[in-house]
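Let's practice the habit of predicting before peeking. Look at the sequence and jot down your guess about where helices and strands might fall. Then scroll down.
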Amino acid sequence: MSEGGFESLYPFLYAKDSDVAAVLAEVRRSTEEKAQEIVELRRTMAERYGDLLVECAEAMARSFAAGGRLFTFGNGGSSSDAQAVTQLFCCPAPGYRPLPAISLTNDIAVVTALSNDVGFEVVFARQIAAWGRGGDIALGLSTSGGSANVLRAFDEASRRGLLTVGFAGYQGGKMAEAGTIDYLFVVPSSSVHRIQEAQTTAYHVLWELTQRALAAAPA
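Done guessing? Here is the structure:
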């Protein structure tokens, strides 16, 4: 981002005659504004997707109970979220059931080999093709909803009979149009920061609901 872009976001840092009290007041106002924005987004997500999260969690629980595995993927910050989802399901806090989960962003040798030899758009789809089987779960994240490699992975997962779960922002982008995602949760925001914060809340809720669904299932 250009210096002018930063100045428009944080004008108090660029004031020539800084008033410390005024700067602190502006920092507080900005922080409160962002906090209120994410609170409202989480409320909107709960109202819009509460029932769908329960339905998705029950479907995921059935998959896990039948021996299914979870594959997660995304780019950049969404790659970090994909790894966080894997950790959440695979290595939960004591008292929760560990579930088989793999992040397709973790093996840098595979990612770079596919990127170099074939193309970056296939780095997740080729792994789904190699590892995925009907009844597994493919969970992808994209703030824009338009990441080509995420869309290709959903194409492959849907073709192979995996349960598909997506997280997007804005209006859902191409993920909302793909027709290959069984459960899509769209954060209605144009701020990447707020989108990822709300997605984090949503996939933690999804994990907890999945755990509850598994615990409630007959042995």
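How did you do? The beta strands are 70-73, 101-103, 137-141, 163-169, 183-187.
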